Amino acid sequence: MFHVKLEGSDAMARDADEKLAARRVKMPKRVVEKPLRQVTKRLLMALFVMFLTVMLVWVDRSGYHDNANGSVDFLDCVYYATVTLSTTGYGDIVPYSDSARLINILLITPLRVLFLIILVGTTLEVLTERTREEWRLNRWRKNLRDHTVVVGFGTKGRSALHTLLATGLRKEQVVIVDPSAKVIDIANAEGFTGVVGDATRSDVLLRAELQKARQIVIATQRDDTAVLVTLTARQLNRGAKIVAAVREEENAPLLKQSGADAVITSASAAGRLLGLSVLSPSAGTVMEDLIHQGSGLDLVERPAKKAEVGKSVRETSDLVVSVLRGHRLLAYDDPHASPIQATDRLITIVRAAPPTSSPVALGSAE
After folding, report:
1. What pTM did the predictor assign?
2. pLDDT number for residue 227
3. Residue 181 contacts residue 21 (beta carbons within 8 Å)
């Protein structure tokens, strides 16, 4: 029996107030002005329209008649502009000259329409914002297929995601799951859709449409959390490729038993790379280059080409380091690795190619 070793603080168990905001889907925001700035701008526009109307009435005040005392002063002009722009007027102050009536037709009436548009537009924008977001969310759910779910947007999750993006994965095909609303806001700012919530809960993973995902990256800070997330994810999606990270090597077998296809021991991997760099700094640099997709040399997995079938692994155009035949991983010098078969997949070292190239980086789904 395996025992999960607990250590460190868990990114999946943060502040309680953030957990209260769990199970929300947050999509990347479109670049818009802040609400207060929008309201202030429209208020200033409305005041400008009112001021312009007052000035038009004041300049031609002799063409207006006040039923109360016959004359029209500045206060009467402000009053007339106010009731005219906000209503159809009360009839106590009316234009009677031809010029005043012409100004009302050509200028004041369009200003009234503009004033109402400014006020009604602000109200409608507030009322329709939620509807628009619901429509975007429904369309996103409908179109999302074969995507990538990244659980935990810390250092490990970011690094894994950047590697996938370097191989051609689009940001629209990524969903981040994290219990911190602040972390999801950062993910939104970078163009990713996020789900706020505890990934050990199936309803949170369902909001990320995990049941339709093609690959799942589990990068939590605690090993016990990684086990629970892996169990839940595998129960919801039997066919997805699940790659998980653990801190302690002794917990790796438990992750595999829980349903992970590949388990990376972060602490041990970093330690081995450090040791290799001590023995040979150049070898450490090469290894760092290989795991950094998109520049220098890349370690990729690709299907065997028709021209390579029947040949030895040493006769291929790329540098083959391993052959994946079914569930067997054969080293390049294994006698059974050659000749290459049509169903083989080759793990090769190639010069970094653009994201549109056919090879698929190791750790990503086909």
Report:
1. 0.58
2. 92
3. yes
